[in-house]
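PRD domain-containing protein structure dump, as promised
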Amino acid sequence: MKTLRVLNNNVVLARDDKGQEVILTGRGIGFNARQGKPVDPALIVRVFVPADGRDPDHLAEALALVGEEVLRAVVIALGEVGIEGRESTRPTLAIAVADHVAGALDRARRGVVVEYPLRAEAQALYADEYAQAQRLLAAINERVDPKLDPAEATALTLHLVNAGFASGDLSFTYTMTGVIQQMLAVVQRQYGLDASRESMSAARFITHVRYLFVRIQQHRQLTGHESTIGTGIRRHYPEATRTAQRLATIVEMRLGESLSEDEVSYLALHVARMTMDADAETGPDAGA
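C-alpha cells r here:
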C-alpha cells in the first residue's frame, strides 16, 4: 500500500494493490510516512475500506480527531470480540464507538452518570447486539481508565444496530426502536396477547421489521410478487392483513414512506404467526 495522505501519527490514507483508497490505523503509522511511499505493513493495526460511496478523506479526518489511546482501545476491542475483523468496510462504526467512548470517559472522570432511557428496549429488541455490546464494553474497559459504567452497554448496542444502516447518526435507530415498540403494542392489544419478546414468533417479527427498515432506508422494498405470494397471504389471513395495514400506517406516519403491498403481506404473515403461536401455547393441550 502507498501513502496518499498522513492525517496524524496514527491515521494514514493510502491506496491498496487494487487501486482503492483505504484508511489505515496503527500506532506510529504516520510517523515519517511520505506521500507516494509504501506503508510499513508491520505498523498496520486496522484497514478501513470505505463503502456506500463514503468519502475516504472525510472518514480519515474523523478518525484522526479521535484520541490515540481511545481509538486504539476501540479498534482492538472490536476485533477481539469478533464484531469487526482486521479489515473493515464500516469505518463509521469505529468512529461512532470511539467518539462515544471518549465522551463517556470524560463523563466518568467528572463523576457524571447517565441513565439511558432505552435500556429495556435495547435488551428486549436487540438481544444479540446487546450481548455483543456487553462483551465490547468489557474489552474496552480492559484498556481504558477510568472504567466505563455497565449502563454504557445500552449506547453501544444502539451503535451496533445503527451500523446496519446507511446513515451515520443514531436518529434512524431511535425512530426504529420506537416504531417496533408501537407495532408490537398494536398486535398485543388487537389480539389480547401477552407476547414475550423472548418467544420465537416475536423474535421473528422483530427481525423482519428490522430488515424492513433497512429496505426502506435503502429504497429497496419487496415488490413483484403481488400476484402470487402476497395474494395468498391476504386470502388465508384476512384479519392479520387488516392488522398489518394498521402497522403500515404507523410506518408511513413515522417515516413518511408508504409500504408496498408485498411488505404489508409479509407483515401480515408474521402477525399471523404470532397469533397462532400464542393460541398453541394457551390451547387446551398446551400444558400436557
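Confidence is low (pLDDT under 50) at residues 284-288.
lmk if u need the other ones
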